[in-house]
Specification:
globular; single chain; Beta-Lactamase; five-stranded antiparallel sheet
């Protein structure tokens, strides 16, 4: 929901919509600076682009799950470790509890923070993969505070899956 700021008529506040049937931006408060020359059509276009950017993560996760039947999970977590988009393939049993999953995601985020601290010397990381006895887990950074998490069966062709995902998140 757009509302002009009380202090500046060219700054608008975007607040979440009251109904889940309307846009779900997952933004509590966001300022948009609008130049006086811009018309309302431009403002609405910018708003819709912002909305579509957030919705792409659900589509991305569904597209990843459709790549290979051996992909167990595709999801995006935020900096709290909570899964915000995507989920488990239907019929697949979770190996970790929700709390264990969140803690595991926080550990992955911490590892990516370390990798990022070295990026000025070795370049930005594209993905990380770990093979466990029961699954393979791949992580891909999505900006500063989100992480794409993908798990597969151990016998999945991870090279092919990683190559496809990298093409999707460019």
């Amino acid at each position: 929901m757009l509302a002009p700021s009380n202090t500046n008529p060219h700054v608008f506040l975007i607040r979440p919509f009251a109904s889940s049937d309307e846009f779900n931006l997952n933004i509590l408060l966001f300022k948009v600076r609008i130049l006086p020359a811009l018309d309302n059509k431009t403002l609405i276009s910018y708003f819709l682009i912002l909305y579509n950017t957030n919705m792409d993560f659900d589509i991305l996760c569904k597209d990843i799950l459709s790549l290979d039947s051996k992909i167990r999970f595709a999801g995006v977590c935020d900096d709290s470790g909570a899964i915000k988009y995507g989920g488990q393939r239907e019929g697949v049993t979770n190996l970790l509890s929700p709390d264990e999953t969140r803690r595991s995601n926080l550990q992955a985020l911490a590892r990516w923070a370390l990798r990022s601290s070295l990026s000025s010397k070795i370049g930005r990381g594209k993905y990380a993969m770990t093979e466990y006895q029961k699954i393979k887990r791949m992580t891909f950074p999505l900006g500063q505070d989100q992480l794409l998490l993908v798990t597969t069966e151990v016998d999945a062709d991870h090279d092919k899956i990683i190559k496809n995902i990298l093409g999707m998140v460019k």
